[in-house]
Design brief:
Length: 506
């Protein structure tokens, strides 16, 4: 059994969960479920980032101590597991004692290598990003990601990480690992950033000004800068440094991140790993922003969309579908209620839901609910069975084109993290089945006794297709897939009492 590790970034707990993080964690969930279906032992990590200036100020504004403030918000993020049918098996909080100990050990290793030093400095600082901003990054004197926040001047003595030391090593690594950052345009972006030269960055704050952080080893006047502390979660979550057997069996892992985290995940964190003497991450998967009517959705901008609202009204799988199919896996995408409703009705209510209802109703009516196709698996089991081989390269996949069964075509897309394209393949199959029903007209065939055998083969073929669709959908829409397989794998097929996706008025 192979081991597979995937982790999301950790969202700040300065606001409730929003649709942007729902996108990231649902994408990671599909990948995790798919590996589990293939028989891999999966470690799926997520959690919350709970230190730093934004959290400290948020707690002050709420009249709470930082830990109580973090506790309340962290609980809301963990609620996403049930709400979105997520399969993660580890939820780390950067306030966890183990994580704090790991961050301090990580610091000591970097210091032992000579990569941590102290100096006075002056910078322009964006609290929204929790990052220093260079003049070349600003637009009209402000951070383009948080234009409503005035930059703050920082003038103090802190510890720095010798980031500049790792320019050539990182460039060599990127050259040898052309699929380290996906998609390729993001890899080119980080290569260009690295080629321009890396600047050492601050990794601590004065405790007298900002006490909410992991204490710096050997200096009770300083706490760790939130980025240094939080990034260590990727290794502390999987046992480092105490359980090296577990760590070595799962690390390196795959990380999902938004494009605004490209520098931190694919460069800063990798330099830190080199400094600590640990293997670099396996892959960094970058997703884009969600916009609404052309405007970026952001906690800092105050225009967020709550995933819980859509889940309550439409169900978890409806939201999962829109995020996975209509938001490009590696690019920006738009989310409005009007677009959501249009896709819900067209693709779910009138598409998949209608097909399941039509086919099962006709099997019950014309075949007394009994068919003889051999189901791909027993009961509601959604594992891939038998195992479908992966294409070993993009060129091989290209040569094979769209050949192979539905599951094999879906595998081709998922293994290259093209989740939207994988769902497009499944929906092409759904459309094909709908067209077959319309063209063949089973209700007409049923009136001609000479065509009884043809009718039976047609309906049994459609049931087999629904079985295949159900299996292919399992990592994407787990609840829907389970419902479909429960119906079409039963000894006697009876249509669902309620539609899978009731049509909604626009």
């Amino acid at each position: 059994m192979s081991k597979f590790y995937i982790t999301t970034t950790l969202p700040y707990v300065n606001a409730d969960p929003h649709i942007g993080f729902a996108l990231e964690i649902v994408q990671a969930d599909v990948i995790a479920r798919w590996h589990a279906m293939r028989g891999d032992e999966v470690f799926f990590n997520t959690g919350t980032d709970e230190h730093g200036l934004k959290i400290y100020r948020g707690a002050q504004a709420a009249g709470l101590d930082p830990k109580s403030y973090a506790d309340a918000h962290a609980a809301k993020y963990d609620e996403l597991k049930c709400a979105l049918h997520l399969s993660y098996n580890n939820f780390i909080r950067t306030t966890d004692a183990h994580h704090g100990d790991a961050a301090q050990e990580f610091w000591r290793r970097c210091a032992k290598r000579g990569d941590i030093y102290k100096k006075n400095y002056q910078i322009k600082y964006c609290v929204g990003c929790e990052l220093e901003k260079m003049e070349s990054e600003l637009e009209d004197g402000r951070c383009p990601l948080h234009p409503h926040l005035a930059l703050e001047q920082v003038d103090e003595e802190n510890y720095f990480f010798r980031y500049s030391r790792y320019r050539d090593t990182l460039l060599e690594f990127y050259a040898k690992n052309p699929e380290f950052v996906i998609p390729k345009n993001r890899l080119y972006e980080i290569i260009k950033f690295t080629e321009r030269g890396l600047q050492d960055f601050s990794i601590s704050r004065l405790k007298s000004k900002m006490p909410w952080g992991v204490p710096v080893p050997g200096d009770d006047q300083q706490v760790m800068y939130v980025w240094f502390d939080a990034l260590v979660n990727y290794v502390s979550a999987v046992g480092w440094p105490d359980d090296l057997k577990k760590f070595n069996s799962f690390w390196p892992g795959v990380q999902t991140a938004g494009k605004d985290n490209l520098r931190q995940q694919s460069s800063m964190w990798q330099a830190m790993l080199l400094s600590a003497g640990l293997p670099l991450s396996k892959q960094i998967l970058i997703h884009g922003f969600i916009t609404s009517a052309g405007q970026k959705i952001s906690k800092s901008l105050g225009n967020t969309i709550s995933p819980f609202d859509y889940i309550e009204e439409f169900g978890a799988d409806a939201l999962r579908y829109y995020l996975l199919r209509e938001i490009p896996t590696h690019d920006d995408g738009d989310f409005t209620r009007e677009k959501f409703l249009a896709r819900y009705n067209a693709n779910l209510a009138n598409g998949l839901g209608n097909l399941v209802q039509r086919v099962t109703a006709m099997v019950e009516k014309y075949l007394d609910g009994k068919t003889s196709p051999t189901p791909p698996s027993k009961g509601g089991d959604t594992r891939i069975s038998p195992p479908y081989p992966l294409r070993r390269s993009r060129s091989e996949a290209s040569e094979r084109g769209v050949g192979g069964g539905l599951q094999e075509q879906v595998n081709d897309r998922i293994q290259y993290y093209q989740l939207d394209q994988a769902l497009a393949v499944i929906w092409a199959k759904i459309s094909e089945c709908d067209k077959r029903v319309d063209d063949e007209k089973p209700w007409v065939l049923a009136k001609d006794e000479a065509k009884t055998e043809h009718l039976q083969k047609l309906l049994e073929g459609l049931v087999a297709d629904l079985q295949e669709i159900g299996h292919a959908l399992a990592p994407f829409l787990p609840q829907t897939a389970e419902s479909i397989l429960k119906v079409v794998n039963a000894p006697k097929i009876i249509p669902p009492e309620a539609p899978l996706f009731p049509r909604k008025a626009i």
